[in-house]
Write the structure tokens for this entry.
Amino acid sequence: MIPAAFQYSKAGSVREAVAQLREAGPEAKVIAGGQSLIPLLRLRLSQPSHLVDVNGVRELDYVHPEGDHLRVGAMTRHSTLARSELVQRHLPLLAEMAAQVGDPQIRARGTLGGVFAHADAAGDYPTLAVMLDATIVTDRRRVAARDFFQHLFTTALAEDELVCEVVFPMAPGPHRYIKFRRRLYDWAIVGAAVQKMDSGWRVGLTHVGPTAVRAAAVESRLQAGASFTEAASAAADGLEPPSDVRASADYRRHLAQVLTRRALEQAA
Amino acid sequence: MAVTQLIGARVQRREDPRLITGHGRFMEDHTLPGLTHLAVVRSPHPHALILGIDTAAARALPGVLAVFTAADFHKVLSGSMPVTPSFAPEKKYVPERFPIADREVCFQGEPVAVVVANDRYLAADAADLVHVTYEPLPAVVDPEGAMNPGSPLVHTDGPDNIGWDMTYAGGDIDAAFSRAEVVVKERIIQQRLAPSAMETRGVMASYSPYSEDLTLWLSSQNPHFIRLFVSGAMGIPESRVRVVSPDVGGGFGSKISPYPEDYLVPAASKLLGRPVRWIETRTESVMTTIHGRGQVFTAEAAALRDGTLLGLRLTQVLDLGAYHGTFGAFQACACLMAGGVYRWEAISARTVGVLTNKVPTDPYRGAGRPEGTHLCERMVDRVADELGMDPAELRRKNFAREFPFVNNFGLTYDSGNYDGTLDRAMELSDYQGWRQRQASARDEGRLIGIGLSTWVEICGLGPSAATAGATGGIALVESAQIRFLPSGSVAAYVGTHAHGQGHDTTFSQLVAETLGVPLEAVDLRHGDTAEGPAFGYGTYGSRSLSVGGMALYTASQEILAKARKLAAHLLEASPDDLEFTAGAFTVRGNPQAKKTIQEVALASYGGNLPAGMEQGLEAVSHFDPPNFVWPFGAHVCVAEVDRETGAVEILSYTGVDDCGNVINPMIVEGQVQGGIAQSIAQALFEEVVYDGESGQLVTGTMLDYLVPTMNELPTPQLDRTVTPSPTNALGVKGIGEAGTIAASAAVINAVCDALRPLGIHHVDMPASPDRLWRLMQEAGR
């Protein structure tokens, strides 16, 4: 519960942050809201040599509608997303997810970009990004969400690369995110997200594997005219969820089906 | 406020303005000039031999003052940590326990070395640099497996793993079972729980080599006992050890017994010649603060077809952990209380204390009584289930109704009215209405259940006749001292010590009303062994009011007796002609002739005293209760199980309790509500999990050890009946543990009632969604 020693510097811009990361070397880490990183530091599970604090990078705190996409800056806090009229109008599912992240203190501090860079299997936004084919914009390139999340806590980011923005397609239609958890402020044991698009339903699952999952089998069954119940029964197809002290893999597979059906019913 | 209204008044807690504005003084708020910081190097293995400890790298870190191991501590500490007889006086094997491992570590987290440094961060860094070479040994994790003759040993030099094995026989059990028309059997698990006080443990010590005295600050429910134990281990006269327990941020029983750090920190101060402080991290707290519960029961209950209960036969396998907790055997009282509020012909209860390679278990809020109640209330429901009787009806058929009631083990319940609390709870909860709603919900395929818990507890520890033997010498009576100062202000000292109970308020109400002074005139002091009577007995076992409050009351009576003599002298009347009302002595028939007690107090320091009377107005009193006290009540839980996910929602929770007369109803309600929360936490959420193979703690953080928050808990409907205790002048009983004792059975009975249509008759705790889902899957096959 006492972090190991580390160096610390503050960045005021993307350029400064990247330069500081480069200078500090491969053991450096970015700290944004710190809501996942600080507990890891305190448990000494993470012992970076240097923290680059990007909380002063104001240029990354924004929500911009552009054409049929919504561009969200990496330093936008969960509480901002939950309250944003633009998000509520153009991608209300993101606002719904943001409102369910952690507790009020965590939402006031945690950032969208932090969730993407941290890539926890139980993170909520990665599910939305993967199911909607969002694009992650870094200081140097654009990466499709499905390529960005590689494994548990592992992304396509280089050591000195900074998440700057996530570009979501706008989706104002019926939607729902159900986060099954024991305590209101917990991570999801399993989460199921559904979004009606012009082209049909998109379905995503949280915490049923090392990364977020797009439930393609459910989507195609719905496309073929299956009932919600029939379609949702395919939600566990191909999943290899973790077994842990919260839930067995079997139970997670079962929840994936139940929650997917409920989300569809509640969204429609 | 008129003084006559104080007892029974909802006085706002006096301590709260200070505490809730962040001005409490907890362990980490205490510091000293030249303070150093200690970190503990702990075993990562549940069981291993220590082959070597290399401290060179840690010592070389700038700012590190010392690294001490067992070899160093043997120079300043001696003896084994204390183990009391409690409810298992016939122990078979008590492993020696030095506060720091020497040759062999027997649980994950056991201290191996300590580092002292100039700051806390350096100490933690240096602790990482202490290199210990271990030879891992097989870990004994499962207490039932540990009983087998072929089991690996928890201590390599032990004879086996059996701490005790004894049977309490209450009546002719074979005769009772021979008349049985129905017998139900069940295996009931009481999972290990982590007490999780908001303030973790902490110890600060300052040993002076010049005056050869020690001051020890620690977060404790029990400062005088800690003084006794530490002074003995360090060889310092008890009178030269001062223990201060400041504001204590919760304990729930986990701050009663002494811990290794309570010895290691003062010993390090003596070795180093500097003040030393250690603050437990949350990770250390989950791993090394005692755990509660940790018991496996097998039970069978015999009854007649008409619902008459006959006999209860049970075995308690108590997971001791690697060493006996100082009061670990207290939890065997589950056996003595397993009969609950009912008349049984006979009860036979075997208790087996079994060592395992885990942190020791010790009393945790309720300590044996929640386990006994849970067992009894589950078995009674199982009988009702088997007979197709309404569980309320079966309970009524068997309630004890004549008091004092002597239970199967000779314990005498002082007073009770079990029909009264059940009637009120059924009315308040709309029990019959819920039965109707349950029936229509079942028709819709919904799983709604209604659970009862009619409970009784033994508390108010305790009569010297019973407790002196249980501790191995010191009777758990209570002491108090009350002093009038010349100005009329009152200093009241008591040997109990609050860790959230609001004693400052309750006791001040009691003293102010008894002495007839304003509440503001009373200063309640506790937690510092340098003040008050020679010995205090601490706070646990719902004893503070019925024993400590009575000591304050009897001290007040002694003061009033002396004040009456002095007032009579001042008023030139006979003491017998004085009346004492509203804080003043008046001469009967002459209300003009009057002396307030504060005027008498001032006079007591003057020269005009009756012949032979000494100056001053103060008294020390000890109260030795003639019996324990026996609060009781009836709780009703209505719960719905989600058939698809196994999630449990509590739809309604009602508690009607009886703790006799009440000093402050608001504080009583707070205690009950908190206790219910803690017991629902056991029923549905919390469980310490160790890996069955490796013995590693799995639930090591608050992410995995699920302490519920207000969001997950219902707001209970509460009410009380009042059946005064005949064993003390105030007619009071205890209430600190009541909710915890009552609720788990009500919740699990409701869950089992909900699942009955599926043919499920028993559910273990925590009734988590995945556990219930699996049970429903199996039942559906």
